[in-house]
Design goal:
heterodimer, A: alpha+beta, 5-stranded mixed beta sheet, 2 helices, 7 strands, 17% helix, B: alpha+beta, 4-stranded mixed beta sheet, 4-stranded antiparallel beta sheet
């Protein structure tokens, strides 16, 4: 297994364990109030899924443990299931029950 | 498509007007103070704005594909909206009335199900409460 690879620009890309792969997690509306902040950056976890991101957020932010077990999520502005994959640079949003209209 | 200004039905209708359209529907969703709501004077709307804009684009594109020829305009308010004022306006013009009604219904139902928008009720006693999709005040804490 190689420990590094070249990206499309020819520069060295180092994968997960060094912590340079990150995702931005956004807490929306009531969840921002519960957690006490609107966003956090987290290292890309393994497995790289939304559910694991939520677990990591709850580990890092004690107030995030108040978030419900089953919640709505979006990745890069698209609704997804909790088992959806996430990649370096993705924006993961945790959405309270929707109430538009 | 997201606005902090009052929604103008005339502007929405003008946006979809076309000589090729023989039927036009206008839907306005307004802030209400029902008997069970306990003195709602307004609702504060907030959104995950970049996703809300993207989702409205997707909804419009889906509807336009399903009902060819339909012209669709949507505005959703953000910020404080007083009782009786419109929080959402949808205008649809189509060649015939069946498509105009169906498209307008499709858009408002998709907005209800998919748009990342939330509301806080402003009560007459000055308190503000998050509202869940069924219209009940939300409990703050674990669900």
């Amino acid at each position: 297994m190689p420990t590094h690879a070249l990206n499309a620009c020819g520069t060295v890309w180092l994968p997960g364990p060094w912590g340079i792969d990150v995702v931005r997690v956004k807490f929306l509306a009531r969840y921002a109030e519960l957690v006490g902040r609107e966003e956090i950056e987290l290292p890309l976890p393994q497995p790289a899924t939304v559910a694991e991101i939520v677990r990591q957020a709850k580990h890092k932010l004690p107030a995030a443990r108040q978030l419900p077990e089953h919640l709505l999520a979006a990745v890069n502005f698209h609704h997804v299931q909790l088992d959806a994959a996430v990649r370096d640079g993705d924006e993961v949003a945790l959405l309270p029950p929707l109430a538009g209209g | 498509m997201l606005t902090r200004d009052p929604i103008s039905p005339a502007a929405l209708l003008a946006e979809v007007a076309s000589p090729e359209c023989g039927g036009t529907c206008l839907f306005l969703g307004t802030v209400r103070d029902g008997p069970e709501d306990g003195g709602v004077t307004g609702i504060e709307y907030s959104a995950y704005e970049p996703m809300a804009v993207a989702e409205l684009d997707r909804i419009r594109a889906e509807a336009a594909k399903r009902w060819p020829g339909a012209r669709i305009a949507v505005r959703h308010r953000l910020g404080l909206v007083a009782t009786e004022d419109a929080s959402i306006g949808i205008a649809v013009a189509a060649p015939h009335r069946e498509a105009a009604f169906a498209t307008c219904r499709y858009v408002i139902e998709a907005v209800k199900q998919r748009l990342p928008v939330w509301k806080k009720e402003l009560r007459a006693d000055g308190t503000m409460l998050w509202v869940d999709p069924q219209g009940r005040p939300a409990v703050v804490g674990p669900e």
